[in-house]
């Protein structure tokens, strides 16, 4: 789609941010060679993966930590089968409606989600907030955070109780307000990758499609495969860790997320849940934002050679910034700040900050930018305020820093629970969009 230029490559490589979001430091060292993840010495894999099925094939519903005492904690991570049986448990105990996206993964897995709250029932326009988990395989606890948060909402609603995450307390009325937003959620959007990571402890990030190579070079980075400046990503030319696939939406997992945005067409707020930088990131990820030059956008290929350079000044000497209407930026930052307040109080450590995605490092093809870009590319589509939450601080004692300690795993569940609560409450206050027509 977009051409690639040496100028943008130089600009992007000059930016070697030190914080580690979804990439390991060695994956960020672009030296022009295909590079496997280095084997780490540690045999410590953090919180163990659960064995068996604590939800008995869907006969038992999960319950999160916000609806239990502050001394309650979990000692194992949900295995892939438990994520599916937990979702089934929520459907059987609370009657929520589940769905399966239409595209099977390379290994034949289905991607499942559900809808809760809103005005309930069959009206797909009633769901305005979309929470997505574990698109990156090794970010352990991502699916758990999504599933346990929804479980908390449903349990609290049913018992007419509130929720407590760390020092954040929510009333029963706030739980009902949060549910009124109408939520679409997918705990596990990369089932092949997570199954492989859980069985191999290999710090696996991508899916399992071998189109790009074999062994450690196989797999597509799903969060580079969306149709947002898809072919404008210097990383993918050099580094198999972020290989973006053979075309935008080449992967069934990403087509499934597009299907969700098309099907629940009134979604107004979207969070993609990642680890581990301790940030709430808001669009854009392609370049610094600017509200002065509406023609300076991802849609205008005349800027391809200068996009992705953050050290320039938009509007002067060829400097580029990605256009964001001022009112949309205000909503983006307001809700991001709210999420940060929840994450910091819920998890008990104040290390989360809000920032623009490109401040971490410029990206293309990411799900949050794609979701937000849709209404620019096609004005008939809904505006979707879009975020990446990067939970956790990383576990440097483990074989893979994305594998949390037991303490981190539990703190992350609480932090993300409060972050999601703040998003839902902020979304209701800031606006959910048009009335439904059904
Ligand atoms: C939680 O654990 C602490 C320390 O073990 C203990 O002092 C406290 O009483 C416990 N609180 C509850 C509510 O069980
Ligand atoms: C919340 O509780 C009310 C009252 O029990 C119930 O009617 C409603 O369906 C519940 N909402 C959800 C999303 O479960
Ligand atoms: C984004 O754009 C606005 C308006 O041009 C500007 O005020 C703001 O500082 C920019 N940066 C971030 C990180 O939001
Ligand atoms: C794209 O940018 C160029 C250079 O600034 C400008 O002349 C042109 O009008 C823009 N095109 C659109 C469609 O906005
Ligand atoms: Zn990630």
UniProtKB/TrEMBL annotation:
Keywords: Hydrolase, Metalloprotease, Protease, Signal, Zinc. Its cofactor is Zn(2+). Residues 33-67 are annotated as: Disordered. The keyword Transferase does not apply. PROSITE patterns: PEPTIDASE_M14, PROKAR_LIPOPROTEIN. InterPro entries: Peptidase_M14 (IPR000834). Residues 76-427 form the Peptidase M14 domain. Residues 1-21 form the signal peptide. The active site is at 390 (proton donor/acceptor). Belongs to the peptidase M14 family. This is Peptidase M14 domain-containing protein.
């Amino acid at each position: 789609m977009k051409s690639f230029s040496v100028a943008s490559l130089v600009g992007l490589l000059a930016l070697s941010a030190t914080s580690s979001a979804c990439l390991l430091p060695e994956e960020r060292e672009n030296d022009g060679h295909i590079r496997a993840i280095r084997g780490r010495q540690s045999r410590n894999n953090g919180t163990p993966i659960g064995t068996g099925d604590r939800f008995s094939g869907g006969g038992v519903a999960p319950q999160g930590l916000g609806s239990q005492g502050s001394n309650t904690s979990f000692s194992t991570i949900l295995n892939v089968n438990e994520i599916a049986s937990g979702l089934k448990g929520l459907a059987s105990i609370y009657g929520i409606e589940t769905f399966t996206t239409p595209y099977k993964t390379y290994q034949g897995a289905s991607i499942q989600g559900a809808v809760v709250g809103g005005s309930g029932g069959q009206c797909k326009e009633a769901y305005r907030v979309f929470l997505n988990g574990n698109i990156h395989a090794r970010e352990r606890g991502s699916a758990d955070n999504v599933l346990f948060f929804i479980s908390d909402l449903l349990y609290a609603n049913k018992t007419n109780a509130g929720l407590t995450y760390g020092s954040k307390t929510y009333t029963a009325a706030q739980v009902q307000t949060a549910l009124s937003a109408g939520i679409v959620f997918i705990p596990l959007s990369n089932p092949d990758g997570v199954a492989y990571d859980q069985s191999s402890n290999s710090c696996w990030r991508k899916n399992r499609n071998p189109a790009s190579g074999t062994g450690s070079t196989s797999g597509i980075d799903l969060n580079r495969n969306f149709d947002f400046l898809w072919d404008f990503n210097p990383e993918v030319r050099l580094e198999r860790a972020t290989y973006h696939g053979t075309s935008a939406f080449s992967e069934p997992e990403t087509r499934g997320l597009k299907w969700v945005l098309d099907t629940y067409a009134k979604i107004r707020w979207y969070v993609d849940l990642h680890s581990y930088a301790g940030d709430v990131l808001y669009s854009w990820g392609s370049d610094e934002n600017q509200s002065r030059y509406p023609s300076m956008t991802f849609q205008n290929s005349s800027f391809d050679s200068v996009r992705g350079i953050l050290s320039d000044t938009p509007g002067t000497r060829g400097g580029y910034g990605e256009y964001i209407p001022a009112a949309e930026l205000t909503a983006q930052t307001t809700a991001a700040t709210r999420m940060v307040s929840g994450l910091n109080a819920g998890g008990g450590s104040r290390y989360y900050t809000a920032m623009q995605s490109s401040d971490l490092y410029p990206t293309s093809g990411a799900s949050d930018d794609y979701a937000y870009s849709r209404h620019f590319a096609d004005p008939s589509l809904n505006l979707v305020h879009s975020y990446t939450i990067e939970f956790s601080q990383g576990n440097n004692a483990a074989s893979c820093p994305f594998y949390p300690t037991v303490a981190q795993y539990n703190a992350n569940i609480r932090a993300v629970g409060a972050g999601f609560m703040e998003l839902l409450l902020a979304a209701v206050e800031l606006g959910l969009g048009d009335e439904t027509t059904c």
